[in-house]
Amino acid sequence: MHKRTLFRSALAAAALAACGLSFADDNVFKIGLILPMTGQQATTGRQIEAAAKLWMAQNGDTVAGKKVQLIVKDDTSLPDVTRRLAQELVVNEKVNVLAGMGITPSALAVAPIATQSKTPLVVMAAATSSITEASPFVVRSSFTLPQVSVALADWAPKNGIKTVVTLVSDYGPGIDAEKYFSERFLFNGGKVADKLRVPLRNPDFAPFLQKVRDLKPDAMFVFVPSGAGAAVMKQFAERGMDKAGIRLIGTGDVTDDDQLGDMGDVALGVVTSHHYSAAHPSPVNKKFVADFEKANKGLRPNFMAVGGYDGMRIIYDALKKTGGKGGGEALLGAMKGQIFESPRGPVFIDAQTRDIVQNVYLRKVEKKDGQLYNVEFDVIKDVKDPGKSRK
Ligand code: PHB
After folding, report:
1. May I ask which residue range the UniProt record assigns to the signal sequence (predicted)?
2. Pocket test for ligand 1, best of 144, 251, 253, 306 (most atoms within 8 A of CB)
3. Which residues neighbour 10 within 8 Å (Cβ) at sequence distance 6 or greater?
4. pLDDT in tens, the chain (391 residues)
């Protein structure tokens, strides 16, 4: 049994290595977009697929003489499924690029396949710092939790928040957020009364919120992945925590634009730090939001959509620059160092780390034309992932 498994993985590795060298059809350029289209992370899949399609509608499907084909697969956010789909896309479909990756475990499951087959892997959602180090073929168009958490830990103590309890999802991005927020907050003279971690799958926030209530800190710092914010906000209100004088702060994942419109007044005044708000007041963003909403029955784009949109741009530009010649390594080379204006603001892909460098904004939830938005009130420019500079 063991031998057979070994034999199978050796075969799979050989097949992957061979695939990196040859493309099925010289005139087609295939992007294998793996996303959670169903299950707990389905909003991420819906947002990124819509954004990728918008990019193609705006920019056409012929680049450098090649027909771009987008192949969307649903991994239901289970990393074993992500791995199997990636393997099939590389071996059978001979995709030129792998993309998507709704959660960190999915990105980590696919990283070795990218390395073995020399296929660029454009991570559009997952945001644990270490993902870019899991394969030299990873390029990230989303963000990292350390990148967006530090700014809030600088803001909080200057704004009456001296004690916090952190509440994070118990996996990569949550642990990154907890660590980088807490360390900076302590450095700034704050006190962390407790650090709570909730399971990623089917979380019940109630007992954790009760604990926070009992500890009565000035604020609760939250990281939950996109899609889970509304549940936290609802239970926070139901327990009367805001009335008890506990403020809710967090990374912008908790006031996700996909759900913010339906969160109700409990969200008003919540301060978060993040790289994208649908209310970002630039002409590029205004056009992006209007076009996205028009193409998707009024759905408001969130930060996942922007990761998908910019990821497509990175792929298109690399294809333009290389003319599709030179395979995965040439494409990867052409992705490094790209610089452009995103709907989120100016960004660039650091050639050394393959991670995105971008502005981080402090935002407060306010009503604009009767709807809730994350309104930016401060900016820290050109922030690199602090998770990298430590090693
Ligand atoms: C992740 O799994 O890396 C992840 C997912 C959703 C987020 C942020 C990070 O909002």
Report:
1. 1-24
2. 253
3. none
4. 444 555 556 556 556 655 544 444 679 999 999 999 999 899 999 999 999 999 999 999 999 999 999 999 999 999 999 999 999 999 999 999 999 999 999 999 999 999 999 999 999 999 999 999 999 999 999 999 999 999 999 999 999 999 999 999 999 999 999 999 999 999 999 999 999 999 999 899 999 999 999 999 999 999 999 999 999 999 999 999 999 999 999 999 999 999 999 999 999 999 999 999 999 999 999 999 999 999 999 999 999 999 999 999 999 999 999 998 989 999 999 999 999 999 999 999 999 999 999 999 999 999 999 999 999 999 999 999 999 855 4
C-alpha to C-alpha distance for 338 and 140, rounded to whole angstroms: 12
Q: Are the C-beta atoms of residues 324 and 66 closer than 8 Å to each other?
A: yes
Tokens standing for residue 73: 């697969």
Pocket flag, ligand 1, residue 128 (CB < 6 Å): yes
| Tokens, residue 202 | 């089917």
Q: Is the pTM of this model over 0.85?
A: yes
Radius of gyration of the chain from Cα atoms? 21
Measuring from atom 8 of ligand 1, which residue has the nearest CA? 225
- In a 3-state reduction of DSSP, which class is residue 373? strand
- Whether ligand 1 lies within 6 angstroms of the CB of 228 is answered as no
Q: Are 356 and 348 in contact (CB under 8 A)?
A: yes
Classify strands 356-368 and 271-274 as parallel, antiparallel or unpaired.
antiparallel
CA–CA distance, 205 with 202 (Å, rounded to integer): 9
Contact indicator for 273, 383 with CB cutoff of 8 Å: no
Give, in degrees to the nearest 5, the angle at Cα 209 between 206 and 214.
125
Give the ranges where the chain is alpha helix by DSSP (H): 2-19, 42-59, 79-88, 104-117, 145-155, 172-187, 206-215, 229-238, 257-260, 283-295, 303-322, 327-335
Query: What SS3 class is residue 35?
Result: strand
Q: Are 216 and 245 in contact (CB under 8 A)?
A: yes
- Provide the 10 A C-beta neighbour count for residue 294: 10
Cα 253 to middle of ligand 1, angstroms: 8
Give 125 Cα–ligand 1 centroid separation in angstroms: 6
